[in-house]
Design goal:
By secondary structure, the protein is mostly beta strands. It has one domain: Beta Barrel (Thrombin, subunit H), CATH 2.40.10. It is built from no helices and eight strands. A four-stranded antiparallel β-sheet has the order 1-2-3-4, with no helix packed on it. It has a four-stranded antiparallel β-sheet with strand order 5-6-7-8, with no helix packed on it. The protein is globular and about 40 Å long. The termini are far apart. The model has no long low-confidence stretch (mean pLDDT 91).
Length: 96
């Protein structure tokens, strides 16, 4: 989906997020933030991207109470992953 891009998932399975309840898949992409996909049966469709300031690479993502949290050296970002046009930012917590 991202031509020529690599992902930490290639070497670290903990970088991969899949929520079977919603079909959400999250893949950190080098130089591209976090790629979100939705899986429904045999279909996979793009669901948006999450980026951090300064194009800081996203290293981890997790779902807590339906909120998608992403982690980078720049900080933590919270999103509602159910946004119609992609994730909707809820909060940004900069690293100190």
């Amino acid at each position: 989906m991202v031509a020529g891009a690599g992902s930490a998932v290639e070497f670290d399975p903990h970088a991969f997020l899949y929520d079977p309840g919603t079909g959400l898949v999250a893949l950190p992409v080098h130089d591209g933030g976090l790629l979100l996909l939705r899986v429904a049966g045999a279909t996979i469709v793009p669901a948006g991207t999450v980026t951090h300031p300064g194009r800081a690479p996203v290293s981890r993502s997790l779902l807590v109470g339906g909120v998608l949290w992403t982690v980078s050296d720049a900080g933590l970002r919270a999103d509602d992953p159910a946004g119609v046009a992609g994730p909707v930012r809820i909060a940004w917590l900069p690293a100190t």
